[in-house]
Amino acid sequence: MARPAFWKGYLKLSLVTCPVAMTPAASESEKVRFHTLNRATGNRVRAEYVDAENGKPVDDGDQVKGYQSGPDDYVILEDADIDAVALESTRTIDVEMFVPRDSIGWIWYDRPHYLAPDDPVGVEAFSVIRDAMAATGMVGVSRLVLYRRERAVMLEPRDRGIVLWTLRYGDEVRDPETYFGDIAPRKLDSRLLTMVTTLIEQHTKPWNPEMTADPVQARLLEIIASKKKGRGAPRVKEQPERPNNVVDIMDALRKSIATEPDRPRRR
Predict the structure, then answer these.
(1) Which of 92, 96, 104, 116 lies closest to 168, judged by CA?
(2) Against a cut of 0.90, is the pTM above it?
(3) Which domain holds residue 122?
(4) How many domains does the structure of the chain reveal?
(5) Are 181 and 161 in contact (CB under 8 A)?
(6) In this structure, is residue 89 part of a structural domain?
(7) What is the maximum span of the chain, computed from C-alpha positions, in angstroms?
(8) Residue 141 near residue 89, CB atoms below 8 Å
(9) What does the alpha-carbon distance between residue 39 and residue 37 come to, in Å, rounded to a whole number?
(10) Non-local CB neighbours of 142 within 8 Å, separated by 6+ positions
(11) Mutual orientation of helices 249-259 and 190-203 as an angle, nearest 10°?
(12) For the segment 93-139, what is each residue's pLDDT rounded down to a tens digit?
């Protein structure tokens, strides 16, 4: 059963237009969430905004966004000011360009969304745009107002639908040279590479979504269930100390390979 869409609009390519609906592809609704309580009464604690100078509460209607332009100087922006910045891209995904799928690095990907036809009449137009991108190995690039800001988006064909990725802004992606530039190139011992390759082969498994399970959340649920039964929280396991001794890489690799169970190597 399809979930309610959080955005509805139109997918447009030149003169071809079709109604579409979009839903976030990822969800955090299953995460364990906590409320802040008053330990003495057990009642929930309510958060409120207060004036930083006089300490008095500020009503919702009096709260506005401000851009700091000086030490004690702010430019106030109303919601209407922000909404008016890019109204044309609030309801239409106008695909004006295509780029090779592999030309956009993964580091630019922000949030994934499922895009699907929102009307039987538009299924054919939607499907032909999707299949043409798949056949040419291209992805569409457009702009769209989402989460109160206009951002670049990438449209990627996936199965019978399209995955729309919001892309990070240019000033959000840091230059890797800043972090990797000091790693000096060096010629490695071919024996070390062979042994690490062997370890990789021994640890290779088919991908399974269960590999991304959250052990912390599972542990939290165990603690909650235990406390609910009046047993108290289970003991916390001590974390091993971080090793600070210098290890001989060749010796460590030999021991690692020797302790691994025998597994058939991938051909």
Answers:
(1) 104
(2) no
(3) 7-26+84-172
(4) 2
(5) no
(6) yes
(7) 72
(8) no
(9) 6
(10) 89, 93, 94, 95, 96, 152, 153, 155
(11) 30
(12) 999 899 999 999 999 999 999 999 999 989 999 999 999 999 999 99
